[in-house]
Amino acid sequence: MNEIAHEQEVVAARGVKVAFGAVRALDGADLVIRAGECVGLVGHNGAGKSTIVNVINGGLTPHEGTISYGGEVAQGITASRAHGVRCVFQELSLCPNLTVAENARVMHSDLTGTGWRKQALALVKQQLSDIFPGHTIDCESVVEDLTIAERQMVEIAISFGAVADRPRLVILDEPTSSLDAGLAGQLMAYVRRFVEAGGSVLLISHILGEILSTSNRIVVMKDGKVVADKPASQFQTRSLVEAMGSVVREQGSDRTARVRTGDAVLSKQLNPRSDSRLEAYAGEIVGLAGLGGHGQTEALLEIYLSANGNWWPTREPKMAFVAGDRGLNGTFSLWSILKNLSVSSLKALSSRSMISDGREAEVGDRWRKRIEIRTPDMDNPILSLSGGNQQKVLFARALVTTSKIVLMDDPMRGVDIGTKQEVYEILRSEASAGRTFIWYSTEMDEIRLCDRVYVFRDGAIAAELVGEEITEANVLAASFAGGVAV
Ligand SMILES: Nc1ncnc2c1ncn2[C@@H]1O[C@H](COP(=O)(O)OP(=O)(O)OP(=O)(O)O)[C@@H](O)[C@H]1O
Questions:
Q1: 386 Cβ below 6 A of ligand 1
Q2: What is the best residue among 18, 20, 333 to mutate for testing ligand 1's pocket, by most ligand atoms within 8 Å of CB?
Q3: Quick check: ipTM above 0.95?
Q4: How many Å lie between the centroid of ligand 1 and the Cα of residue 386?
Q5: % helix, strand, coil for the chain, step of 5
Q6: What burial class does residue 311 get, using C-beta atoms within 10 Å of its C-beta: 0-12 exposed, 13-18 middle, 19+ buried?
Q7: Among the four 138, 258, 320, 403, which has the fewest Cβ within 10 Å?
Q8: Can you tell me the distance from the alpha carbon of 391 to that of 83, in angstroms, rounded to the nearest whole number?
Q9: Which helix (H) or strand (E) segment is 486 a member of?
Q10: Is the CB of 48 under 6 A from ligand 1?
């Protein structure tokens, strides 16, 4: 590869400061990205990663510091686009009421003329097949009919696509948060090919394995500053976690020893066409695994609706639900952080139909400390929180209820490793106290924490794994037709 091209600076942010009221989102951060490299960007929730992305992408003007593209100081979205910067945002940004091809047109303004629709269709199809060979997305469908994983794939494909000018830097903010391991692997392989051909990628992820295996260089942010910037080969998981300011904890293996007692607290026939019955017992953590989009979310929704069909709030709801697609069905975007947290327990926080402000604030304060929701004030709007911190609020919302069963739809999307470890411990202690969790996860590390796992394939349960049978090999074998779990 050309050594000069390697050294070429695509984007440089120097001494960048951005404040939102009292919050210093960026406090003098420096980030340089050169041609032909994948830079991994990691840091705790609220460290400033999405903010620096917005600055580089030209959507946010820094209060101090400079941005240069190819050595030329400039600002704004037009300048960043002109220099080949593309961004796949953490909160996906496709227009839901347009088709996949129409969304490609929105992103690529040079798709013009009478044949633009055909061209757009060809562009996305080609790009999707290059990145995710074997995908089954219909590019003529309207985006709101796609699953969250498919939307993520489409947005990635559109960003890497080239019409007149090729992308020079593609920023991927949590690109695999909704993708299963197979799709995530395909994307990481494509990133490596793109970088080898001279392109640049800024990869933000809380899944440290993919950062370590894909990046050439890793930048660690903490509290709005860059605290480490070294070749990826000089980091291992432990040193990376420590650089982020967290502590690596050993995962206990006691979950495998759990003995089922009493009657099932949940027993549900899922798919009338098959004999898929999902059961759960008090104190169990039941995992739903398999390739993404094979019916796990639908199963959770079916279970939830069968218990809460009338939608009336009750003092002791039987089940709570942690949404994975927080933008679509998780957060109330015009409400405060506190109201978003307390909305599922209003009955319990009220006396004589009046909500007790004091009790609500006390609950908010307790959970803010327990899972470190990073905000100076719980009355701030929910959208003032970083993505991972919003997800923590949704998690707290479910745990605050007295529900005996908690359904979780891939709830750790974008949550940092320190908090994840905290949440895993909360799950264990709540399960020991008799709560039941039914947990769909796209991460194998989380599936391993479960007592029992149902592997889904084509909308039905393909296998049930217990204790030591819960291995990646068995989950993968059961995920594909013809595979046999041992
Ligand atoms: N529009 C906003 N208004 C107020 N505060 C904001 C706004 N956007 C970001 N912040 C704050 O700036 C800080 C940095 O947020 P940012 O989204 O950059 O973090 P992050 O590192 O991307 O976190 P995550 O891993 O959770 O995505 C956070 O404390 C966040 O609450």
A1: yes
A2: 20
A3: yes
A4: 4
A5: 40, 25, 40
A6: exposed
A7: 138
A8: 33
A9: none
A10: yes
CA of 411 from ligand 1 middle (Å) equals 19
Q: Does the Cβ of 385 fall within 6 Å of ligand 1?
A: yes
Ligand 1 center from residue 207 Cα (angstroms): 19
Nearest to 322 by CA among 388, 399, 418: 399
Find the 387 Cα to ligand 1 centroid distance in Å.
7
By residue count, the chain amounts to 486
Residue 418 Cβ inside 6 Å of ligand 1? The answer reads no
Closest residue by Cα to residue 47 from 224, 171, 220: 224
Amino acid identity at 443: E
The span from the CA of 55 to the CA of 66, in Å, is 10
Secondary structure of residue 106 in the 3-state scheme: helix
Closest CA to 179 of 129, 220, 135, 127: 135
Residues of the chain predicted below pLDDT 70: 1-7, 91-92, 246-261, 272-274, 309-316, 481-486
Under a CB-based contact definition with an 8 Å cutoff, are residues 153 and 128 in contact?
yes
* Residue 334: both structure tokens together: 């015009």
Per residue in 11-47, pLDDT (tens digit) is 999 999 999 887 889 999 999 999 999 999 998 888 8
Task: Report how far apart, in Å, the C-alpha atoms of 122 and of each of 100, 155, 183, 366 are.
Answer: 11, 15, 21, 52
* DSSP secondary structure string for all residues of 266-329: EEEEEETTTTEEEEE-TT-EEEEESSTTSSHHHHHHHHHHHHSTT----SS-SEEEE-S-HHHH
- Express each pLDDT in 216-240 by its tens digit: 999 999 989 999 999 999 998 888 8
* Token digits of residue 455: 């592997």
| Residue found under tokens 């590390």 | 445
Distance separating alpha carbons of residues 208 and 227, to the nearest angstrom: 17
Of 90, 42, 155, 55, whose CA–CA distance to 385 is shortest? 90
Q: Under a CB-based contact definition with an 8 Å cutoff, are residues 465 and 455 in contact?
A: yes
Say if ligand 1 is within 6 A of residue 373 CB: no
Closest ligand 1 atom, residue 52 Cα: 18
Rounded Cα distance, 373 and 98, in Å: 35
- List phi, psi (to 5°) of 219: -115, 130
Which ligand 1 atom sits nearest the alpha carbon of residue 43?
21
**Phi, psi for residue 67 in degrees, rounded to 5:** -125, 135
Other Cβ atoms closer than 10 A to 182: 14
